[in-house]
């Protein structure tokens, strides 16, 4: 059974940092691209970042470029999202997902999702 488990969310002041983790099990982790999405109350789930199967390629939402870094450790079946210089607008539930589509940025291209982790940035 496939499972994705996010962790690392929390409450942080603007300008602070958090590191999210996504631990995967029940699948061949290195066969999937990994993505991070977020969903704020009353809004649709939106793309944040994606990393290729081998980790050599990444893509980001424009508003997080230079602040967020996506990475993965295939030996540990884990992906990460390092978030620096956080802003109140980054407040949302963050989800990781896996996709067989190359560098997928649309939520419907993702096959499995985690349960989400709350990130709250206070001003």
Structure write-up:
The chain has no helices and 11 strands. With 123 residues, it is mostly beta strands. Strand 4 and strand 5 form a beta hairpin.
SSE order and pairing:
Elements: E1 3-7, E2 10-13, E3 18-25, E4 33-39, E5 46-51, E6 58-60, E7 68-73, E8 78-83, E9 92-99, E10 112-113, E11 117-122
Parallel strand pairs: 2-11
Antiparallel strand pairs: 1-3, 3-8, 4-5, 4-9, 5-6, 7-8, 9-10, 9-11
Radius of gyration: 13 Å
Distance, first to last CA: 40 Å
- Give me the secondary-structure category: mainly beta
Shape: globular
Poorly predicted ranges = none
Strand content: over 45%
- Could you estimate the helical fraction of the residues in percent? under 10%
Sketch the major β-sheet. Answer: 7 strands, mixed
Mean pLDDT: 97
**SSE string:** EEEEEEEEEEE
* Annotation, overall tally of beta strands: 11
Task: Note the total helix count.
Answer: 0
Give the structure's gist in a few sentences.
This protein has 123 residues and is an all-beta fold. The chain is built from no helices and eleven strands.
Key attributes of the depicted protein:
123 residues; mainly beta; seven-stranded mixed beta sheet; four-stranded antiparallel beta sheet; 11 strands; 0% helix; 50% strand; globular
């Amino acid at each position: 059974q496939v499972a994705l488990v996010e962790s690392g969310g929390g409450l942080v002041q603007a300008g602070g940092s958090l590191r999210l983790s996504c631990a995967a099990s029940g699948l061949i982790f290195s066969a999937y691209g990994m993505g991070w999405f977020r969903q704020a109350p009353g809004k649709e789930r939106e793309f944040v970042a994606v990393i290729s199967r081998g980790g050599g390629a990444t893509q980001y939402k424009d508003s997080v470029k230079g602040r967020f870094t996506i990475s993965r450790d295939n030996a540990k079946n884990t992906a990460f999202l390092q978030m620096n210089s956080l802003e109140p607008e980054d407040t949302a539930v963050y989800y990781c997902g896996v996709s067989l589509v190359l560098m997928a940025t649309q939520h419907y291209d993702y096959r499995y999702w985690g349960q989400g982790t709350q990130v709250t940035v206070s001003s």
